[in-house]
Predict the structure.
Amino acid sequence: MTDVLLAVGTRKGLFIGRRRAGRWELGGPHFNAQAVYSIGIDTRRPVPRLLVGGDSSHWGPSVFHSDDLGASWSEPAKPAIKFPKDTGASLERVWQLHPAGPTAPDVVYAGTEPAALFRSDDAGETFELVRPLWEHPTRSKWVPGGGGEAVHTVVTDRRAPEAVTVAVSAAGVFRSRDGGVTWKASNQGVSAVFLPDPYPEFGQCVHKIAQDAGDLDRLYLQNHWGVYRSDDAGAKWTDIGDGLPSDFGFTVTAHPHRPDVAYVFPITADEDRVPAGRRCRVYRTADAGRSWEPLSAGLPEDDHYGTVLRDAMCTDGADPAGVYFGNRNGELFASADDGDSWQQLASHLPDVLCVRAAVVG
């Protein structure tokens, strides 16, 4: 069985799992008492680089990296991410660390709170503010979501390094096709049921976006009410929530190899925000959202209250694919067969905020 690295960010540190010869070992925590909201695993180099956004209540937020799979960590002498003085802003949290595609081998993007995009050209050592998004003409009308005002999702296109898509809570989807020089709101068809105009140009509370494995112009979007698909790289969106027990949720993840396959974790909202029907169930589509099936083999059968957050589900690059998720109960689950069956890897962890996995040699 393929060896896998699994990185789990929690409210109180980072845990690292390794699967060797089919057996799991989980160690940690690293960064004791720091909230880890963002993890990037950069597999574009011979040994993967781990990037971690830590948030210390005493020292503040920082970005760490490891080139030996977590055995040791480096932190820049000066803050890797810092807002320029003229912005009048200061970094509150790093929500996303996203290595770009193979055509931009040293580029890493960071999404932050306050809502901004930063770009690194040295594999995550230093970052610079992408000013055109920060200075977008609609920015003064952006409002925070329940978790704050943040750029929490970054999607790049391995065919074209100048194409970048971000999701902002709660301003919606914005796209650039010129390397971040210009940005356009791209929310056509996505609802904002909490606003007077339910289909505004911007202002949607988008929770997560994932890119299809086969058609790179196909994107999946989990909204604050609504699951959507785009077939034109986000220019317009179609509702694909029929067949789910709830179309509210935080996370959406695409299969790493199989086209048209994606996963969501439905949640009852807005009152209690627990798994739909109080059942711990992942739902999978194999036809780009035309139908959905529940995946439950090996998952808890009793009433369940573990909410899965936007970055707390992921896949690895194995074949068949590993699928992973953690929840706010501190439980961690893994599937080694595309989600058909599950095993519990851990319980009683701190609140799970982020999960990332990759095949390693």
Observations:
- Residues 131-134 form the longest helix (4 residues).
- The chain has one domain: 4-359.
- Residues 4-359 form a domain with the Methylamine Dehydrogenase; Chain H fold (CATH 2.130.10.10).
